[in-house]
């Protein structure tokens, strides 16, 4: 991530306990971000108006400071924050993309079983905000990148692709590009939504465990069959050639471990099976795997 | 649509009954399309190797022909083809986008109740192909635009946006752009997939009619609440300003008639309600409504 001057996080200087409404985030220049300048009133006693957590964050991340009259400006580098869960396939997708693009990020675990997606989470200078203010859907993944707060994997990927051109995920070649769009869209709109944990819980509760398994097998089978057909004329080492592209970052979470977890027979899908084998050898994918994440349960 | 030289539909000249594998579609220049040149062997008897339907299609659409040795090249203008159903909200979305972009298209109705998505459909020069060859998922919408065959609404919209810049659906402004991505993504990955007809049939079959209604209300409520929050700082006359954008083409099908159809109370969503009121006054949306489509049942 390139460090550039961008956003001022402005605090009113005369209050010790500022509420969230006192914090205004605004951009000096829209398309640049990564470096924060924090403006705070300073008194004889020190950094008035900041919490201890914020002061500690500043000391850790400060690149420079400027004194001007009764204000001090702290120039800080803030990493992108990724709200993620090891249980979430689209979080897995975004972790792969961030790694491929060489973006350093802070992993913010959201424990879905503890319903943390509906609880306050700590984010510097946003105080302890409800996760619903980061993503009103209450789903992971979500990112905070400077003054950009964004959720939903497809939206995040389009944003990353535009802002961080390293390792493009959308190919220049039209035929390959639209196959990537279509494959990603099959995963995001026809597979992943129907295999979300709450949906599977609901099916099991209303119709029983066998029906849940049939449901998972039906949607995996339907989507895998379509993807196998769609990709057969485009695949190389990976889904649409010899580079990891959009289709791959969406497919990998469903091809690594997922079929085994649901005892799903992959023998009818030779292309997808070989993609799955190829993916586990890619370091960016291997490092993004659920069991490598800080929130993965040890026992 | 600009008429440009693009694709050669090549038939082998020595066979009367060519199978689908004899038909090769290829592009002369990748990013231009709209005008077809059809190459056919010609004999003393006339247009050998063409069906009557194809000959009739050529006569209707031919812009020019060129004779060269034993071949004749027919230059034809072919409209974009949209495979659509009045029952499908993403088909509605694509119809709005095509109209806004001023793209003339041929409406190919797919009757979902008659399972036509799994039956052969007529498409010039593709013979009667299984719809599954157009979209291996068996879902509408799908488009054929020259040599491009593409399905899934998000994929189609990204393609249209890149190829047909008239009435951009993705704003230049970064903040507005990502809100559009996120809103579109909420509809395509968290609302529409769970409200598909087969999913609702399944819930009704396994858990009863009341559960189906609760299911619809739950997902409409969850997504509408998130969208209301997401859009509140961005809305103008429409979802993210005073122009119809990506968010709007996705929202309109769920705000026009849909809540009434499921007896869903919109009073908690004043912004979305006002967007719904605004949409029905937009001719491109009004003309894309299910009841204006050729496949809408008369009785």
UniProtKB/TrEMBL annotation, chains A, B:
Protein name: S-crystallin, Maleylacetoacetate isomerase
A Pfam entry, by short name: GST_C_3
Species per Swiss-Prot/TrEMBL record: Artemisia annua
InterPro entries per the UniProt record, alphabetical: Glutathione-S-Trfase_C-like (IPR010987), Glutathione-S-Trfase_C_sf (IPR036282), Glutathione_S-Trfase (IPR040079), Glutathione_S-Trfase_N (IPR004045), GST_C (IPR004046), GST_Zeta (IPR005955), Thioredoxin-like_sf (IPR036249)
GST N-terminal domain boundaries: 78-168
Xref: PANTHER family: GLUTATHIONE TRANSFERASE, MALEYLACETOACETATE ISOMERASE
Domain named GST C-terminal: residues: 173-298
Record's keyword terms, sorted: Isomerase
SUPFAM superfamilies in the cross-refs: GST C-terminal domain-like, Thioredoxin-like
Similarity section: Belongs to the GST superfamily. Zeta family.
Cellular component, GO annotation: cytoplasm
GO BP of this protein: glutathione metabolic process; L-phenylalanine catabolic process
A Gene Ontology molecular function term of the record: glutathione transferase activity
């Amino acid at each position: 991530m390139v460090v550039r001057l961008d956003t001022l996080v402005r605090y009113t200087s005369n209050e010790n306990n500022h509420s969230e409404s006192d914090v205004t985030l605004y951009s000096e220049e829209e398309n640049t971000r990564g470096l924060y300048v924090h403006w705070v009133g300073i008194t004889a006693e020190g950094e008035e108006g900041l919490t201890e957590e914020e002061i500690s964050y500043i000391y850790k991340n400060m690149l420079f400071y400027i004194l001007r009259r009764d204000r001090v400006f702290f120039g800080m580098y803030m990493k992108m924050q990724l709200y993620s869960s090891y249980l979430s396939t689209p979080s897995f997708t975004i972790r792969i993309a961030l790694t491929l693009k060489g973006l350093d990020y802070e992993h913010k675990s959201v424990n879905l079983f503890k319903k943390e997606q509906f609880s306050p989470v700590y984010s510097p200078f946003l105080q302890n905000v409800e996760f619903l203010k980061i993503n009103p859907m209450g789903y992971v993944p979500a990112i905070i990148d400077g003054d950009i707060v964004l959720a939903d994997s497809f939206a995040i990927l389009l944003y990353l692709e535009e802002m961080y051109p390293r390792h493009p995920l959308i190919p220049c070649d039209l035929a390959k590009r639209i196959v990537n769009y279509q494959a990603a869209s099959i995963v995001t709109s026809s597979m992943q939504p129907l295999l979300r944990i709450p949906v599977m819980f609901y099916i099991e509760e209303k119709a029983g465990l066998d029906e849940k398994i049939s449901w998972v097998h039906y949607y995996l089978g339907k989507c895998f069959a379509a993807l196998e057909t769609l990709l057969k004329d485009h695949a190389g080492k990976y889904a649409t050639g010899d580079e990891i592209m959009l289709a791959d970052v969406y497919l990998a979470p469903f091809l690594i471990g997922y079929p085994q977890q649901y005892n799903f027979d992959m023998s009818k899908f030779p292309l997808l099976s070989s993609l799955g084998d190829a993916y586990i050898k890619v370091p960016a994918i291997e490092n993004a795997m659920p069991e490598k994440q800080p929130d993965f349960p040890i026992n």
